[in-house]
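Order emerges. As here.
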Amino acid sequence: MSPSIWQLLIVAVVALLLFGGRGRISSIMGDLAKGITSFRQGLKEGDAETKAVDKEDMVNITPETEKAESKD
């Protein structure tokens, strides 16, 4: 069964809406690239904001173990 003229016309109209216009796909890809670039810049800025930890700022969290006294 072959598609009728109306079905072909509907498919053509949908294709024109999706892909029509001058540079529509390229503008979508350009917006996507800008979004990826700004995301990467945000990650780099987050890394730059982290500060180095000084030894004085460090906290010892290891549990102190009681030394077992020698056997009597």
Summary: The helical segments are 5-19, 24-49.
